Amino acid sequence: MTDKELFELAVKAAERSYSGYSSFRVGAALLAKNGQVYTGCNIENASYSLTNCAERTAVFKAVSEGCTDFEAIAVAGSSDDDFSKPCFPCGACLQVLSEFCGRGFKIVLADKAYSLQDFLPFTFKL
Ligand code: THU
Question: Which residue puts its alpha carbon closest to atom 10 of ligand 1?
Fold first, then answer.
């Protein structure tokens, strides 16, 4: 799976975004080491703070199905269906990713591929 293919799956996942409150669609495609891809979208709520980000939707889907070994995630976000600008993952999603992924874990955005370490050099650990 190329970075471009993974990113296209993230754009496709954004079509399912439930985001009537912010009108900001986000899709994520999480590539597991076994080749399986778990997609996710942001899911908003009338009680705003209960919103779940696309990245965490994808991670929680995967983990709840028994998969915890990941290689990369692609993230696509936009308020106007133009997904050509990078949509950087929020801090909460980075922390959730860090639970399962090492520093070299790849984060594919619209412009290029980054590593988890680029965005979260230090992570909270018990
Ligand atoms: N959002 C994500 O899905 N992922 C992020 O990393 C940051 C923000 C969503 C949450 C909310 O539905 C919308 O973007 C606007 O904040």
Answer: 53
Report the half-sphere exposure of 50 (CA within 13 A, side-chain side): 4
92-110 residue pLDDT tens: 999 999 999 999 999 999 9
3-state secondary structure 36-92: CEEEEECECCCCHHHCECHHHHHHHHHHHCCCCCEEEEEEEEECCCCCCCCCCCCHH
Which helix (H) or strand (E) is 8 found in, with range? helix 3-14
The pick from 15, 51, 57 for probing ligand 1's pocket by mutation, whose C-beta has the most ligand atoms within 8 angstroms, reads 51
Best residue for ligand 1 mutational test, from 17, 22, 23, 24 (most atoms within 8 Å of Cβ) = 24
pLDDT tier for residue 5 given thresholds of 50, 70 and 90: very high
User: Which domains does the chain show, CATH number per domain?
Assistant: 3-119 (3.40.140.10)
